[in-house]
């Protein structure tokens, strides 16, 4: 949950120990305000599933949470190697939190590679649970350990829990008729059970999930549940785990309502379905599979009973082409992709600009250029979205700030597309797409009214009194042209990518007309009504930190840290990148310094500097990972002091 | 030659009043070069459309880029002049979302077979309910005379002063290879034949590809004279008619037979001894083998033994019909979409 109100208190890196008790003389139970856990293992070890399940348990318990899945692009990199390590980090708390956390308090390492790849992120004193069965000589050598780190003292500064997870799992499943290999595969559920015991997570949801997932293989379902329970019981009985922890529900962090945990891509898909309902238009998705956007295609294809048509095209160009064809026919049309796909779609986006039809272009940004880092996050498509087309081809740009916000951002992008008859970029990224957080499920009455009107008759009278339909006669307020869909008698017209005469829409090569049309298309986008930029500045700071998109969580967490340390800093976060909010210039002028952190080399900073002549200070990171709050706080402090 | 009654035209609303050719002419001045074969095709299409009796507002022409792609501007229907090569993709979105429309694609040899080759073959294999008119003049006209993917090898053009190097596509062979359910070829100057082929294509359920040999009198004049000159055409042109023996030449003196050894087709002089062996054209046979073999009879250089007419017309599942069926099935199985239920699905908890 990312409340927009900044909290006066700061969360330190170390969890706060609130109380300690020893019920009935058994094991200690300690109360923490927050915990960061990282599950790490081989790509085939099921770490993403384990993380997802722990997240669901945590969400249903009522904690605030934020997640960071991190996995290689290879489906199955060579087993036991560093490139094959897949991890899932979860931050949960009894209060409002903003990021998946900088440094894990607990690492679950399923093999030596997972330990080696993640140990550098762990603060001294962190708990490490390792699967000792995988720490064989060969496995150690594979990742360059000369001696076992479990025995050479290199982990002395940590609280190490060596657990033979594989052996224990196989032992727990010996009554099932499974091969050893099959039994071993349940070791992630054993680990999940152990962690669920350690943090007092509810278990019913996971057991229900396993029964449903393996409904057709009841033996496998039963084995996984047995492994899960064995893990729990192991924690309960073994002396190595003397303490368990409670993190109370984040009761005060959430406004009243019904909540669920949601990832950015799921929220975005739901936003599109909701926009379709609110616009009373059928949803049409033309798409080509690409990481990290494919989940939206998968999700929408499951909801055909909402009248959703999903078309998996032969390529990125056909994906947007089909969407544009559907837009011409009166659908709420969407194409989903990532950066390389946007490059291929550019010409069709230009056609949509020229034909002035509503179209949503969803770009789940990833590391670039070219194929880049398919499974890692980046914000480096902003300038591509702004300018990546031939000619003057302005396109509105909307960016969600958190996973749950992808829902609202999709509705907002649809509003702009439908109202102004234009393609709109929705710029999410890999971090938002795969990360998750609690989301208050909205009542349908809260959703915006997106209904639009198709043209139904003539809109112009010629000098001789004849009533005609002019496809490029504009609404004087929005400058939008009429949307006249095939099947409407009397409005037959032809549109295309050649320059059109103002009003009639007929082909025109007239120089003055082209100048007018170029300026009019720009004026239409410039005139889009967007809300003013809100500034959070409780104590009259002289420095403003300005962000956009998924950096909201880390920036806000960094700002809280600074304020808790007595440093004044103002914060504003852009949802609309084109056009900018009308008050942005005035906001920027009100500060001595403007700092713009971005996961690129300064793309928003470039736009700000160009448009407002502000000496914006850029702070950049392009390592495929979101900013860490502590690092950002340090950078902001340095900028303030500079 | 027609497959009346098998198509999906019943989904398209009918015109209330009788239409004439004039109803399909737009108010735009036609701007092709004088003498261009496109004029004849336009006249044939405008003349044929009233015969379908469809509500004009439910007809859409989508084109790409090239001389032929100006076509939609001259028809008083809905139309889109899109971008190079992408018309089949755009038309696919329109046809799959609006089954009440009759959607036509107008394209050329460069548009469909070079830059748009990918979209063409995928439209054909999907069998979307589209009618694709491929104007083949074997040259790039709009960019002023470079060789095209259907030009003969050795073609001397501005971009190939020593002759082109690449072997041409045979559009009919390509379409059959791409699983097309309807493939035909006709000629711009033969209005009657062109109209017959359009008639067959219009009612075909699924993607229909019609290759139209079209003369570019500026950059490739006379490219199809071998098929147009009455005398020369006698030995060059093979008119395919479903259910009829494939014979051509003066008094049907020549015919097509199957070589028993290779299974391939060959042209023979018809004699009383071999007359019974002359191949009877079957456009509806499920196997594409013979249709493909027919498409290979023509010599790409001389155009001798060029079949025209409907090579293949078979009924197989139509993509947009199947898509609509899935939507209906989803409603039957899951009920009509309940948004509140969807949003509140999964594991939820209540605060406050």
Descriptors for this entry?
heterodimer; A: 642 residues; alpha/beta; Pyruvate-ferredoxin Oxidoreductase, domain 3; Rossmann fold; 3 domains; seven-stranded mixed beta sheet; six-stranded mixed beta sheet; 26 strands; globular; disordered N terminus; B: 352 residues; 2 domains; eight-stranded mixed beta sheet; three-stranded antiparallel beta sheet; 11 helices; 12 strands; 17% strand
Would you write up a description of this structure?
With 642 residues, chain A is α/β, with parallel strands linked by helices. Chain A is built from 20 helices and 26 strands. In chain A, strand 1 and strand 2 form a beta hairpin. Chain A is globular, with a radius of gyration of 27 Å. With 352 residues, chain B is α/β, with parallel strands linked by helices. Chain B has two domains: 9-223 and 315-343, Rossmann fold (3-Layer(aba) Sandwich), CATH 3.40.50.970; 231-304, no CATH class. Helix content of chain B is 29%, strand content 17%. Chain B contains eleven helices and twelve strands. An eight-stranded mixed sheet of chain B has the order 2-1-3-4-6-5-11-7, with helices on both faces. Chain B has a three-stranded antiparallel sheet with strand order 8-9-10. Residues 1-5 of chain B have low confidence and may be disordered.
